[in-house]
Amino acid sequence: MASAQLSRRTASINRNTNETKIQLSLSLDGGPLEFLSPTEEFPPDNSDDALHPPQTEKTHASQAAGSQHIWIWTGVGFLDHMLHAWAKHAGWSLRIRCKGDLIIDDHHTTEDTFLALGTAFTKALGARTGIARFGHAYAPLDEALSRAVIDISSRPFFVGDFGFQGPMMGTLNTQMIHHGLGSWAQAAGVTLHMDVLKGQNDHHRAESAFKALAVACRQACERVKGKEGEVVSTKGVL
Fold first, then answer.
1. 50: pLDDT confidence band, cut at 50, 70 and 90?
2. 120 and 29 Cβ atoms separated by less than 8 Å
3. What is the mean pLDDT of residues 102-131?
């Protein structure tokens, strides 16, 4: 007799502050995702007040395949690009839209997007049982090579060494990659170490780092057959 199909681990959240309005839907197991629903902050896609392209429209950070639905629009193009790579190689389906105070800079938009994604990750993961817990990966991009190691430990901690040469990538301040990933680790309740080991091009360094993180996340979130309901810790709790 075939075993019952496991339910998908999903979460949808709205995060509103005086600085940003964020709507996000995540599936750790991929698959289709419904369009983000209109709200007071996000009027219907066909509205004259809509600040984002329609979710049916293919953009710089979107795809809709059978195994994954990804659509990301934060107003910071390079951030969208990194989140797209992360979701793609982690096997996630992800929809994000953000309305932030970009008239100031990219700080609040980036930080709050990572916090929202970390909160959704925690919510979607649910009870931290029956999973691999640990993940690690190397990912190259041309001359760049990065390593990511993650522990879904409920002990938030982040160490990152990226070695970017310039202050900006597009409209994203390079400092915000470190700060954003630290914010995600806190909200996601994970221990995360990331290192760019080599690379001359900042774009390559960043993208290889996010791809390594994606593969590590995919490993750590994997459900382990025969370990259902078990806590992967000598403490008996995560």
1. low
2. no
3. 97
The whole-angstrom separation of Cα 81 and Cα 108 is 18
Tell me the per-residue pLDDT of 75-92, one tens digit each, with 9 for 90 and over: 999 999 999 999 999 999
Report the 3 state secondary structure along 128-189: CCCECCEEEEEEEECCEEEEEEEECCCCCEEEEECCCCCCEECCEECHHHHHHHHHHHHHHC
Q: What are the angstrom distances between the C-alpha of 56 and each of 19, 96, 148, 212?
A: 27, 14, 33, 29
140 touches 208 (CB < 8 A): yes
Q: Show the DSSP H helices in the chain as ranges.
A: 77-90, 107-125, 175-188, 202-221
- Is residue 66 predicted with pLDDT exceeding 90? no
With bands split at pLDDT 50, 70 and 90, how would you rate the model's confidence at 1? very low
Identify the residue whose tokens are 């914010």.
Answer: 183
